[in-house]
Fold each of these.
Amino acid sequence: PLVLGIETSCDETGVGIVRGHTLLADAVASSVEEHARFGGVVPEVASRAHLEAMVPTLERACETAGITLSDVDAVAVTSGPGLAGALLVGVAAAKALALGLEKPLYGVNHLAAHVAVDQLEHGALPDPCLAMLVSGGHSSLLRVDDVTSSVTPLGATIDDAAGEAFDKVARLLGLPFPGGPHIDRAARSGSSVAIDFPRGLSSRRDLERHRFDFSFSGLKTAVARWVQAREAAGEPVPVADVAASFQEAVCDVLTRKAVDAAVSAGIEDILVGGGVAANSRLRVLTEERAARHGIRVRVPRPGLCTDNGAMVAALGSEMVARGRTPSSLDLPADSSLPVTEVLAG
Ligand code: ATP
Ligand code: MG
Ligand code: FE
C-alpha cells in the first residue's frame, strides 16, 4: 500500500510517501531561518509557515514519487507531541485528505516515528530493540517490542533534552541556531579531552535512582561558567575545544546508558533516532561501545534523523501492515501525547 505521511510538529513541514519500506518521496520545507534570529522556534511563526508550505510541499512530494493523490491508500499524520498550533495544521490537512480520498487516517506519535523511520533505510525493525531517542525536545531510552503498539520508556532526561543542550551551548559559543550541526562541525577540529565537563546522573548514588535517566542542564551550566571565566580573564574562548569536550560529555553518558540498558534487558539491537542521532560522534561512540557487547546498532542517515514526513509515512505504513485500527476523523492534535501512545484516537 502507498502511504502518505504529514509532519508539522515543530518547524519542518514534511510530506513523505512510502510503499512498504520503500521511500518514494520526502519533501521538507523548513521555517528554521525565520526562527534563527530569535534563537529558538516561535510557535506562531511556525504555524503560519506550515499553512503556507503545506500544499506546495504536498505537491512536490507527489511529483517526486510520480503519483497522484488518488493513488494514496492511507494517510498518516503526527498528532503529537509538538507545538499545538503547528500540529493542528498537519492534522487538519491529513483529515481533509483522508475524508476527500475516502482512505484511512492514522494519527501517529512523532517520537515513535523517529524510531520507525529506520525501516526505510535498514528494513524491518528487530523486535525487541532498544531505542535511544535523542531530539530537540526529548531524550529517552525506550524498549520497543512493536513500534505500532508497544513502546516502554526505561528512562528519560529529567531536565533538558540533548538537542536542547546542543542548541544552548551553541548559543553560548556564538554559533547559529539550531546549534547541533554547528557544534558537530566545530568539534572536529577540537579536543574532546581538553575540558573535563560533568557527566550528569553518573555518580554511584545517582545511578541507584536514575540508572537510565539523563540530565543535561548541569552540563550546560558548567559550559556557561567555563566560557564566562575565560571571557572575564580576557582570554579567547577555544570554541572547537569547548564544542568537542561538551559533545563528548553528552555522547559519553548517552551511549554508556543505552548500552547498559540493552545489556541489562538482554536486547541485541540499539536503534538511535531523533535529530541528535545525526551527530557524528554519537554515531561512532554508540557503535564502538555496543560492539564490545555484541550489540548491533542502527542509525538512519542524517537527513532522516531530523524531522520529516517520511518518518510519519514509515510508521503509518507499519500500522497498515500490522492491521491496526485507523484513527477517527475526530483525531485531536495532542501537544503532550505520551510516547506510550503510538497510535492516537
Ligand atoms: P522532538 O522530536 O523532541 O519533538 P524536534 O522535532 O524539534 O524535537 P528534531 O528535529 O528531532 O527535534 O531534532 C532537532 C535537534 O537535533 C536540534 O536540537 C538540533 O540541534 C539537533 N541536531 C541536529 N543535527 C545535529 C548534530 N549533527 N549534532 C547534534 N545535534 C544535532
Ligand atoms: Mg526543526
Ligand atoms: Fe522530532
Amino acid sequence: MRYYVCTLFPDMIRQIMGTSILGRAEKNGYISVNTVNIRDFSQKKSMRVDDYPYGGGAGMVMEPEPVYQAVQSALQRAAEDRKAEDCGRAAADRNAGGEQRTAGADRIKESGEKKDASGGIRTRVIYLTPQARVLDQTMVEELAREKELVLLCGHYEGIDERVLQETVTDYVSIGDYVLTGGELGAAVLMDAVSRFVPGVLHNDESSQFESMQDNLLEYPHFTRPEQWHGRKVPPVLLTGDHGKIEEWRYQQAVARTQERRPDLLKNSFVLHTFWYGSQEAEEYASCLHGRISRYGEIQNYNRNKLIRSRNVLGNQELLLLVEGAGADGDVPFEERFRNLYGSGKTLAWICSDGSLAEKKKEFLADRGFRLLGCSRYSDAENTEQTDRLALDIRKKALHLAGR
Ligand code: ADE
C-alpha cells in the first residue's frame, strides 16, 4: 500500500508513521508513506496558503490553488510509482516465463481497481473532515483493497469548496468531534488500513478475524498470572476445551456489546453455514464462514437428520448455503430445504451455479428468506476472491440488518 499525504505538517505524519509496527512495515517495504507539503505550492512570498473567507466570519480558509497543485503532485507521484511497480512486475514476469505474476491490465482486473474515463486507474483522494461518514471497519477493509491512497489534510476553518469538488473522491471523518487538522485523522486511517496489508502484522499480532467485523466487541483477554490482585482468570479458559471456550467468548462478546455498544448489537448477525454436495463445498464453506464471522456454526447438510429436522432461523441470523457440484442429483433443492424456514428478516446466500439463482430466490422467498445474492464459488485457494465475497456478504448483511 502506498500512501501520499498532502499536509501542512509533514513531520507530524512522518513521526507517527515512522514508529512501532507501521515504522517496521515501511522499513520492510509493505507500506510506503509519502508526504507532499501543501506550503511548497504557495503562490505568495509569505508562503501562506490561507486567506479570509468570502462572506465574512471567523477563521481562515485554505486557498484552492496550492491544494490543487499538491494533490496533482501526489497523483503524479502515485502514477510514477505504480508504473515503476508494474515494470518491476513485468521484469519478474519475463524472468519467471510470464506465468508467475500478474502485471498491468490483468492485475487491475483482478484487484478490482477503478478506472477513470481515460482508462487509467482512478486513485482515491480522501479528504479528512468531520463533515463526513465516520470511518468503520468495513470502510477500512474496503480501502485496504486499493494499491494506493491520496489523503488530504485540511487546517484552519477548512479548504475552499471548489478544489474539493474538483479533486476529492471520498470524505472521511474519524469521529463526531472537531480536531485542529486532518493529520491525526489521516494517521488513524493509515494505521487501521495498514493492518489489512499482508505482511504488516506478524502472526502473533493478527487475528484472522477482527473484533468489529461482525458488529460485536471483542471478548475479554487474560494472561499470566492465573491470580492477580485477588482476581482469578475465568476457569473455562483453563479447561483446554475449545468448544466451551469459543461458546464462552461468544457470550462475553454479546454481553459486552450489549452493555457498552447496544447500537452495534442491533445490526449484528449470527452466521449459520450449511454445506452440501462435495467435499470441496465443505472446504469452501469453512473458508468463507471464517471470513464473515468468527462465531456461528458450519453444518453438513448432507445429513438426513438435519434435513428432516425443522430448522427455524431467527431474525438476526444469516444463513450461508454452500452447494457443491452435483448436489442436486443427490437430493433435489426443494426437498433438501423442505424444513428450513426463516422469518422476513433472515438473510440467505447461496454459493453455487449462478444460473439457478432465480429459481432458488423464489423458493427461498416463499419460506421467508431474503436472498442477499447468489455467487458461484471459487476454490478456497483464491483468497483474493474469497475475501472480496466475504466482505460483500458482510456489508450487505449489516446493511440489510438495519444500517
Ligand atoms: N479534521 C478535523 N476533525 C476531523 C475529524 N473528526 N475527522 C477527520 N478529520 C478531521
Amino acid sequence: MANINDNFLKLKAGYLFPEIGRRVNAFCDANADANVIKLGIGDVTEPLPEAIRTAMHSAIDEMGQSQTFRGYGPEQGYAFLREAIATNDFQSRGCDISPEEIFISDGSKCDTGNILDIFGPGNTVAVQDPVYPVYVDTNVMAGRTGEADENGRYEGLTYLPCTADNDFTPSLPEQPVDMIYLCYPNNPTGSVASKETLKKWVDYANENGSIILFDAAYEAFITDDSIPHSIYEIDGARNCAIEFRSFSKNAGFTGTRCALTVVPKSLKGKTANGDEQEIHALWNRRQSTKFNGVSYIIQRGAEAAYSDAGKEQIKTLINFYLENASILSEGLQSVGINVFGGVNAPYIWLKTPEGMKSWEFFDHLLDKAHLVGTPGSGFGASGEGYFRLSAFNSRANVEEAVQRLKSLMG
Ligand code: MLT
C-alpha cells in the first residue's frame, strides 16, 4: 500500500466553508420552508460587468476562426493582460512592477497555497489570527507544523492575535520568522493597514531576511485615499514581498476564475548551501511545469476590467457591495452590536452577544433568523467571540437580513 501524506491527518475537521455548507444543508433539509439568507462565504452575487462580457464574447468569436484560434497560451499569462495590470494596478500608483513580474493564474486561493512549493520545509511561518484558513491549512499539508492544540492552533506556527484590543493590527513576531502572511484589507476582520503599518512590516522583513506573502484580494474596496492598495507602495517591498491579487471580488470572477501573483525579480531566497537564489525564476519554473495558463477568453475578459467602461462598471459593483456593508453595519449597531470593518472591505466583523461563542451565535442566527454568517473561531482562536457577515448579496436580501437581525436582537 502506498504511503499517504500524513500531514493531512493533522487538519482539523473540514475546510471552514464546506463545513458551514454542510450545517446549512442539514438545517434546510429539516426546514424545507425556511428562506435562508447566506452571508457566510464571500461569494459575489452580481452579474459580470458588460464590458467584460463583451470582451469575452469577442474572444470566443476569435476562437471560432482558424486565423485567430489559440491553443496553449503562455503559462505566465498573455502579455496584453500582464501589461494592463502592470500599468493600471501598479505603475499608476508609483509601484515599480513590470509585466514580466506578474503571473496570471486561476485564483489567489490556489496561488497562496501553491507558492509553498518553492519554499523550504524548515521555514518558520507567522499568520494573523484570525486568518484566512488557506494559509494555515496549506502549511499543515506541507509539513511545516505539528499537531493542533485544543484551540486549533498548530504547533510550530506563530500566531499574531488581531482583536479589538489592538485595533486588529498585530504586533511584530517576538522571534524572527521566515515567512509572514498579511492580508489587507483583511479577511475576515475588514481592517486595513496604513502606510506606517506596512512600512513597519517591510522594514522588519528586510532586516530579518523574511518574505511577506501579501494578499490584496480586497484592495478594490479601499475607499480611504491614504490607505495603500499594494505593498509595493512601500519602499523596500520589492526585496521582501510577493503580492496576490484577484479579479474575483472586484469584477465578479469567483466562478470565472482569474487572479495574479507578483513576484519581483529583486526578491531573493537562500539555497541549502547558503547561496542567494532569485525567487521569480523558481515560481516561473513551478508554473511552467504544473500550470497551463488561464483560458484566453477569460484573460480577455480580465483585460476589459481596465477599459474605461470596465473601470466604471467595476466601481459601480464595489459601491454596491460597500453600500450593503454599510446597511448591515448600521442595522447591527442600531441593536447594540459592536461592529468593525465594512468600510474599506466587504466584510463586517462583529462581537457576538455577551456570553455567546462564535458557533453558538451561528446556530442561533440560523435557527431563529434563518441567516448564515461565518463563526469567528473558524478563522482562528483569536476569532472566538466574533462573527463575520459578508456584504456580497442582493440588496433585497441584505435589507431582509437587517430586519431579521433587528427582530432577533432588538
Ligand atoms: C471567504 O469567504 O473568506 C472567501 O470567499 C474565501 C475565498 O475567497 O476563497
Amino acid sequence: MKNPAPQTIYLSDYTPPAYLVDSVHLTFKLGATDTRVISRIAFRPNPDATSKEFFLHGQDLRFVSAMIDGAPITPDLSAEGLRYDAPDAPFVFEAEVEISPSTNTSLEGLYMSNGMYCTQCEAEGFRKITYYPDRPDVMAVFTVRIEGDLPVLLSNGNPVAQDEGWAEWHDPWPKPAYLFALIAGDLVALSDTFTTRSGRKVDLNIWVRPGGDEAKRAFGMDALKKSMAWDEEIYGREYDLDLFNIVAVDDFNMGAMENKGLNIFNASAVLASPETATDADFERIEAIIAHEYFHNWTGNRITCRDWFQLCLKEGLTVFRDQQFTGDMRSHAVTRIDDAMVLRAHQFREDNGPLAHPVRPDSFVEINNFYTATVYEKGAEVIGMLKLLVGDADYAKALDLYFDRHDGDAATIEDWLRVFEDVTGRDLSQFARWYSQAGTPRLTVHESYADGTYQLHLRQETPPTPGQETKEPLVLPIAVGLLNENGAEVVPTTVLEMTQAEQTFSFGGLSSKPTASILRNFSAPVIVKHDKTNAERAFLLAHDTDPFNRWDAGRTLAQDLLMRMVCDNATPDTGFLDGLAAVLRDDTLDPAFRALVLRLPSEEDTAQALFDAGHTPDPAVINDVHETLKLHIAQHLQDTLPRIYADMSVDGPYTPDAEPAGKRALGNAVLALQSKLDGGKAAAQQFASADNMTQQLGALRALLQIAKGAHELAAFEAQWGHDRLVMDKWFALQVSLAPADQAAATAEKLTAHPDFDIKNPNRFRAVFGGLRGNTAGFHHRSGAGYDLLADWLIKLDPLNPQTTARMTTAFDTWKHYDTERQTKIREALERIAGTSGLSGDTHEMVTRLLG
Ligand code: ARG
Ligand code: ZN
C-alpha cells in the first residue's frame, strides 16, 4: 500500500469540497518511531458541493481508531485515505493514528532532523500526519497540543498555555492544512520585537539548535524587520499575530516554508555570518526571508483554491521579493540578476520536454511543479501587468485584491478580475500568459526614411509538449531611441504588442537612431535582432538603460563565443576594448562592472548554439570559454592590478550592496589575473581573507587554473565542523573539476565520511555541482550520466521529491549528438525501469523521455 498508482489530475476537473471544516484540534504525543496524533475535526456539509462523498486524505498512517459524534466507526481505508458514509449534517470526526517521524526520510509530513521534530506540509504533506481533507480550499482554525519531553514546542499562531512537557497553540486565522507546522526540540532563539504601524508589538524569534549556529542569526533578524517594514510601506500590509517564529532546519527539501506564524527554513536559507557566508548567500537569505514573510498576505491570508493556482501565491510573492531586493540594493543589478536566472532556468525549461504553462492544466505530482516557470515566469507576468496598467492602477488593484479576497482560496481568474475592475481593461488576451507554455521569440526589423523610424515586430512561440499551436500574447515592449552621440531622442516608451506582427513608428527624427529594445527586460521573451556588433558596442558604451547596456555586452560576448565555436573566430579588439572601457569606468557601480565582465556560462553557450541550429559540443565550448577568458585577461593585463587594488574594502565586513559589489568585481578580476600569475594573487587572498566571499573567491580562482590542492585541504581543516560551509567545499570541487575528472571527483566525494545521502543540501552540493559542470557532466564517456543515474536510483526510495527535482539535469538531452543522447536515454530508462520507483520520479522521467 506504499505507492498509490500515479494518477493525472486536471484543472478542468475541479470540484468544491463535499465538507468544510470549522475547527481542528490536534494532539501530538511525540515519539521518534511512534508519535500519536489525535484529531478532533468539526465538519459541516458544503452548501456549494457537487458531491456528498466524505473522503479524508491519509498516507503512511497507522490507523488506531475513529469516531463520529463520539460513536466508533469503521471507515474504508486505502493507500490514499479514508472513506465513510458520513451524515449530511454537521458532525465531529475524531481519529487517532500513529506515525514514525524518525524513519520518515521523505522530509514531508512530520520528520526528524538532527534530533528535532519538524514538518513540511506543502503541498500534500499533511496527509502524512493525520486523516484530513488535504486541499487548500478547505480552511480551518487550528488548535494544537504538543506533548513531548523537549524544551521547545512550537506550532502556528499564538501560545495558549505551556508547562514542562507540553504546550498548546491556537492560530486564529483560518488556514489550509499545507500551512500547518510543528517544531519540537532543544532550540535556542535570538529574540527581538517589531512594532507594526498600528502599534501591535510582535515578538520575533529565530531558533537554531545550540552548538555553533547562534552567531549566524543576526542578519536574518535584520532582514525580517526590513521585510515587515517594507510590506507596510509599499503594500500597506501589516503582520497579524503577536508572534513570528523562524526555525532553521538542517534537512529540508526546498529553501523555506511560509507556515502561518512559524516559518521553517533550510538552514542554508537563513543562517549567515561574515566568515561562513558569501555576499551572494547574504543576498539570497535576505530575499528568502522577505519571500516567506510576504507570503503571510500573498499565500496565507489569500491562498490558492487548488494547486493549479500555485503561481497565484508564488509568482506574486517572487515579484514582491524582487521589488524588495531592488529597493534594498540596486534596481539595475537586481533586474540583471533576475533576468540571468530566468534565462538560465526558465527559458531552458520552456525549451525542453518539461515545458509547462505558468498555470499548468494537469499534473501527477504537484511537487514537480515548483518550477522556474511557476515562480520566476509567474513573477514576470506580474511585472508585465504592472507595466501595462501603470504603478497607480497596480497599487489600486492590489488593494482591491486584498480587500475582496482576504480569507479566500482564490484563482488566477479572481486575480485578473481585480485588474479588469480597476482599469476597465479586457485582460482575456493577457490571460494567455498563464495558459500558454513556451518562450516567445520577438523578431525585430527596422527601417528609417524621411525622419521616421519604424520598428517591425513579429512574435512567435515555438510548440511545446501538448501545445502545438500558439496564439499571440500581449507584450509590453519598452523602447528608447538614441542618436549618434548617445543622447536619448525618444525616452523609454512602452509599446503594447498584441498581434503576431506589428509596426510601430517614431516620427520627427533628424537621423537614423539606434534602438534600445526591451529595456529593463520588459517581457520574458528572446529578442532576435540582427544588430551589427558596432551597434551593440555603441549600446554597451552609451545606453541609458542599465539592463540593456549590460545585455548589449552579453550579446556581444555570446555572439563571439558562438563564432569561436563555429568559425574558429578569434576575439576581436572591438569586443575586448568595449569590456575594458566598462571595467575602467570608475563612475559605474562595481557590481554592474562585475556583471559585464562575467561571461555567459558554458550552459548558456550550449543553449544558444542549439537555438541557432547547431549541436553543442561541451568539450569545444569549454575550450573556447577558457580561450576567451585568457584573451580577456591578457588584454586587460595592465588594468587588472589597479582595479583589484581599488576594490579593496576598508573596515569590518558588512554584506551591504556597496562593499559586496566591490568584492564581486575584485573576485572577477582575481579570476582573470590568476590566468596570468599562476594563482599568486589568489593564494594571497585565500591566506589573508577574513570573510567567506574572499576566501571562496580565491579558492574558486585557484581551482579554475587546476591549482589549490593545498587550499582545499586547509579549507576542510578549517571548516570541517560547519555543515553549510562544507557544502561549498563539496560543491566547488565537483563544479570546477576538469571535465574528464568531474564524475570521478563526485564519486570520490560520495565516499567522504561527511557525505550523507539523506541530507538534501549535501546531496545537491555534490550532484548539483556535477550538473553545473557542463563539460564534466556531459563528458563523452557518459560517466557523469551514469553516476547521477546510480545515485538518483539510490535516493529515490529515501527522498522522492529531491530525486525528481534532480532529474531535471537531463532536460537538455535532445540538444546533443546521438552518442550522448543514447547514453542519456539509457540512464533515463534505467531510472524509469527501477522497480518501486516513486510517482514523483516516474512522472519526471516519463516527461523527460517524452
Ligand atoms: N511555499 C514554499 C515557498 O516558495 C515552497 C515550498 C515547496 N515545498 C514543496 N515540497 N513543494 O516559499
Ligand atoms: Zn513561495
